[in-house]
Predict the structure of Serpin domain-containing protein.
Amino acid sequence: MSSASGLRMLFITVISVACLLVSPCLAGIKELSPHFADPKPDPQGFEPEVDVQALPLEFHKENTVTNDLVFEGFEDEDYIDFDKILAAGSDDYTEGDEIDEIATPAPDIDIFAEPSDPKIRRARLIRLFQGQSRLQRLNIVNAQFGFNLYRSLRNHVNQSDNILLAPAGISIAMGMMSLGAGPRTHDQIFKALGFAEFLNVSYHYDNTTVHKLFRKQTHRLFRRNFGYTLRSVNDVYVKKDISVKEAFRAETKAYYFAEPQSADFRDPAFLDKANSRIQKLTKGLIREPLKSVDPNMVLMLLNYLYFKGTWEQKFPKEMTHYRNFRVNEKTNVRVPMMTNKGNYLAAADHELDCDILHLPYTGNISMLIALPRKIAGMRTLEQEISPTIVKKWLTNMTNRTREVVVPRFKLEQNYDMIENLKEMGLTDLFQESGDFTGMTSEKVAMNWLKHQGTITVNEEGTEAAALTQVGFMPLSSQIHFTVDHPFLFLIYEHRTGCLVFMGRVVNPSKS
């Protein structure tokens, strides 16, 4: 097989918080969800007992990411010149890489418990922060927020639904919104996102530390030279004739590389412009997320996340065959299962009754697959997952030759996040009591918050450490790792400790 014919990538594209729409309270709140809900594509039909390689060329085209890439010939420079953006402000916030001395929690505290006592919760967080840079610490609380948001989202969808979430993009977007929030609303955002807990760890930290670290994250994470492509871009559109405070304008540009632009939301040309830019930035994977716009809108925030990665150990295409995937105890589906044999890190969590597989991409970024041993165990795994648990997994893995079998899958998800964030304490944002006086003197409230994403995992397209904890044994005897029933996946960038994406695959034959 030639390298060209075998070249398949993993692409993930997310409009992380697709739109933050703020409308005048007196104009009322308009429900826009029906206008933005894309029709779900029909599940891919799979013929039983068929070798993927024996199928016609047209099938292979439909199942490669390149079929989605309608913009032929686009180079990175065509959709974002990141070198130019970064050159505009030097990467001078060296404190982001510092490891501050922080108090050491009492050694008898069980940091792996999930206690209600806030003192023990603080001690657990401080223990996790030991030996971590400021940016890595912020990403620990970003991940905790992501897991909490995932749990809220899971409770709003069916047990049979696949899930895709980009915690990093949502944290970035909410961090930017906090720049425009008044004191009470700002406090709600910082508490719900975990930023308040982060700040309480050291008297050296203040509100601007969070924003400086997001700026540092852009420098450290969203670059070209690591062997993968990962981009986060923020666009802010403000209604024509609405005055935006200069402090908000300056800070969004300094920390988030976003500059508010004037827009006429009543003009149909705005939709064409915004959708064209989204399609270009996401390499055609998200084509037309904005179907219509409330003409009373005052502000729209778009955050795009785009990822393209190559497996460190590619799955040979000729080894992909149809096999059964157990959706639940009664239902099987036939899906293309990728197979490879090589040295892979893996671990077993006996407390959560699951196994964990580490699939590295080129460039110190990887996918972790957490596979419950019983289908019914997914609920417990989803409920308990935390940064502490992930740290246990990463520090208890063993490396040995294994045969790995993983389904090929593509997810396309679109969520309205308002109810989820309300559940997590962000209520003022969506009410007249919301305070955005840091952004504008107009009385406004947020009326729509969308999260949309696409991920495709196939043959060519996703680092860790070692030790042992109580109830946690390495997978020393397991030589097969077959992912043939519902699983969680996490995509971590290890230099920064950033949880970029997470999700659940219940049925790989559905997007």
Remarks:
- The two ends are 29 Å apart (CA to CA).
- DSSP finds 16 helices and 16 strands in the chain.
